[in-house]
Amino acid sequence: MSYLKISVMKYLLALLCIIGILAMVLTKSKSPPYEPGHIEKTVKCKSDLMERRQLPPADPRPVLYVVTPTYRRVEQVPELTRLGQTLLTVPHLVWMVVEDADACSPHVAALLDRLGMPYVHLASAMPAQYRSERYVPRGVSNRRAAMTWLRDQSPQPTGVMYFLDDDNTIDIRLLEQMRHTKKVSMFPVGLVADYLVSSPIVQEGRVTGWFDGWIVDRQFPVDMAGFAVNLSLVMASDALMPYHAGYEEDKMLRAFGITMDEIEPLANQCTEVLVWHTKTKKNQPPSLRREVASHPNSNIAALAENMERIAMATT
Ligand code: UGA
Ligand code: MN
């Protein structure tokens, strides 16, 4: 090969390297940072805490703050109805329902009011920069808003915080167990990844490792519904959940600075599944305009209108 050919090849190689590095930098910088760089807008809709029957001021038990992110879709009202009616049976519990929206929806407000349990209703939309991500950090803006409310607005900032998605299923015995969390308690979550469970590994009463299908580089490879935190930990720091899909739990727990020795294993030393990461089939809202027209003087018009009100149809 001539000297000229070799030098041209060298240049080409160098050019390819530069293009490769540039591509890497560009794709990396496309991903927005895990903190949005501005304060997210939260709308405080209504909180009804003390007057309701389950939160009598004199009750000495720690209060459970169950934080549930939610967003408008066909399945929203059935999910919230099912979960809400479960939580309703647990005394001394505040349900914090946070909508991923610019404003609170009347149908969610009506549901909360009807249930008659102590609640906090907020709305905090996901910053637009994260919506187009490959892995969207779902429910993060909602949970951050709830944590900020607990820090800044809670009239009684003691108790235990627990994240429970609107589509999850819980055995109320677990809620009673986690009420007494001193720092951080953990427990198995069913229907997660390949093992159909994500759980701490417990040896002689201590958490020594993790039984989870996706450990990767996570220090605390747990499901969002797999841990509860005493509010003293939340109040002692200003850590919020990062907008980093897959790493939300891990990074937040790391920020709280907990150690393995401090983790309190529940659910009978993590031998029982008492909460499940259930998933509901997603549906598209049908347009019922023609059906309404073809059934005049009947219930169908009112039915379709009610369905539209709760995001189940368009007319
Ligand atoms: C899993 C985790 O269990 C979630 O806690 C985590 O937020 C999510 O992945 C993630 O990191 O993306 P998964 O069942 O896959 O949950 O997600 P969804 O059930 O769709 O959403 C989790 C929660 O966020 C739900 O309560 C849902 O109502 C809420 N959500 C979802 C929003 O508020 N906005 C959305 O756009 C989507
Ligand atoms: Mn889910």
Write the layout of secondary structure elements.
Layout: H1 3-30, E1 43-48, E2 64-70, H2 76-87, E3 93-99, H3 106-115, E4 119-123, H4 128-131, H5 140-152, E5 160-163, E6 169-170, H6 172-178, E7 184-186, E8 189-190, E9 197-203, E10 206-211, E11 227-230, H7 231-235, H8 248-256, E12 263-265, H9 267-270, E13 275-276, H10 289-294, H11 300-309
Parallel strand pairs: 2-3, 2-5, 3-4, 7-12
Antiparallel strand pairs: 1-4, 5-11, 6-13, 7-11, 8-9, 9-10
Helix pairs in contact: 2-3
The structure holds uridine-5'-diphosphate-glucuronic acid and manganese (II) ion.
Mean pLDDT: 92
Number of helices: 11
- Give the strand line-up of the largest sheet: 1-4-3-2-5-11-7-12
Shape label: globular
Hetero groups in this structure are: uridine-5'-diphosphate-glucuronic acid, manganese (II) ion
